[in-house]
Model the fold of this input.
Amino acid sequence: METILIRNVRAADSLRDAVCDMLLKDGKIAAIGAHIEAETDRVIDGTGLAALPGLFDMHVHFRDPGQTHKEDVYTGTAAALAGGVTGVLCMPNTTPPMDNPEQVREFLSRAKTTGVDVHQTGTLTVGLKGEQLADYEALKAAGVTALSDDGRPVPTAEMMKAALAKAKEAGLPVVSHCEDLAIINGGIINKGAVSEALGVKGMDRLSEDSITERDLQMALETGAQLHICHVSTRGSTDAVRKAKAAGGNVSCETAPHYFLLTDELLLKRDADYRMNPPLRTPDDVAAIKEGILDGTIDCIITDHAPHTAAEKADFEKAPNGVVGLETSLAATLTAFYHTGLLTLQDIVRLMSDNPRRLLHLPARTLEEGQPADLILVDLNRKWTVDPEKLHSRSHNTVFKGMTFTGKVLTTITGGVVRYEAERISEKG
Ligand code: DOR
Ligand code: ZN
Ligand code: ZN
Done:
């Protein structure tokens, strides 16, 4: 394994934000400090770049097994590495779903060669059917990191309460997709002025808000660890804030599209702007931002949900979901760092420290002795999202054509360079 010296880089993690040299050797950070002298195979000039711990995205869909024409563990992790993401938690709505310990073992063993720290959720209910609870002890023994029925809600409060109690016994966090299917009733975008203008069925925010309230209440009653998925409304942000104040062992996440975009984009009648929960209103965007700034929202995730261009061609019939792994840091830097709302260390907390902490995984810092899992970022490089250039097998990005400031140039895991962007500045 080559030794790498990174010179004159701005290293930012939970402990520091300072310019220094870093020496990577035998898969570890061998030294970090001013002016390191060492014989190395490779020297990277970090002048003007930031070094951050590898990001962790605790909400991705890799479609493996069963829908690998959309993505698989190899293309999904390639997209992750290109986005500076060195750890992921995969959702269980594969085909068949991840309720089977053997399937979990097989997936995790294939993921080992990817250079990404791949984690898998087990299902909360058998077959994601919401009828009977899965075998959490067996799933835990197979290696799952958390439990979720993501893609679907657990149908009743009673069943969610039982799931939380059983997950608590197994020592696993529950990750909940909060949606009331009776309220959704065939809706495809946020219910409001835009859905009316388009004459399509809307998804009322009450669907998200009411099930978020329900699940938080069940978490308070059981004392179990609950993480609310993809918060998109003012109401559900407020509900999480209250449950935290009440002492619940609860947390939540949002995705860049919920703090950067609104449902007005749907006027284009383009299914690439459709996901679940849907893009909402300017007031929701403001609430999501407030939630990030006051610590109510713990993590920025992508809900990376690949779908084919053919499926996305029909605005009304297309499946929900957008890819996001290759744009999440750039989008977050653009919205929060370059506007002065968050520091680099805050962003590391939201995109690396908190997800790892919530999943009970070891922290990643840039200290001596830590695994060399880190990224080099040109914070000031402007680039425009071109769906055709994504490493994901699917190109359904909601950010197509948008220009961001901040680009991942190098991703290193286990001391090995796994991804390098072109250093020459790209046009457009
Ligand atoms: O937009 C979404 N896509 N939301 C979900 O809950 C599921 C996901 C998917 O699997 O495509
Ligand atoms: Zn979901
Ligand atoms: Zn999801």
Summary: The first helix runs from residue 73 to 82. The chain has two domains: 4-51+369-385+401-420, 54-358. The radius of gyration is 21 Å. The pocket of DOR (ligand 1) is lined by residues 61, 93, 150-151, 177, 275-276, 303, 305, 319-321 (CB under 6 Å).
